[in-house]
Amino acid sequence: LYIVDKLERLNEDDKFRTDYNVELVRRKEINSARLDGFDDGYDAGAKAEKIEIAKNFLKDGISIEVVSRNTGLSIEELEELNN
Fold first, then answer.
1. C-beta atoms surrounding 68 within 10 Å
2. 55 contacts: CB under 8 Å, gap ≥ 6
3. At what angle do helices 64-71 and 14-59 cross, to 10 degrees?
4. What span, in angstroms and rounded, lies between the C-alpha atoms of 16 and 9?
5. Cα–Cα distance between 27 and 49 in angstroms, integer?
């Protein structure tokens, strides 16, 4: 009954419909921002892990080219780490 009542109000009440649509948009934006934040955090963590692995490879004397190929980090990034 609750859902039926809401649907009837959506059909009959313009202000309610407008408020409802604004709330839907707001919730979608919040969810989108939350997902973007999650993705950004995940990417930052993955990058930090690659850097840590690269540092260990470089300490073990593995060439920059091999480390770059296996971590996806650029040679320039690895040269900065190696200094």
1. 18
2. 81
3. 150
4. 7
5. 33
Token code pair at residue 9: 């109000």
Query: CB neighbours (10 Å) of residue 82?
Result: 13
The predicted model scores a pTM of 0.61
CA–CA gap between residue 68 and residue 2 (Å, rounded): 59
- Least confident segment among 7-11, 20-24, 48-52, 73-77: 7-11
Which residues lie closer than 8 Å to 17 by C-beta, 6 or more apart?
9, 10, 11
Higher pLDDT, 73 or 2: 73
pLDDT, tens digit (0-9, with 9 covering 90-100), for 41-73: 999 999 999 999 999 999 999 999 999 999 999
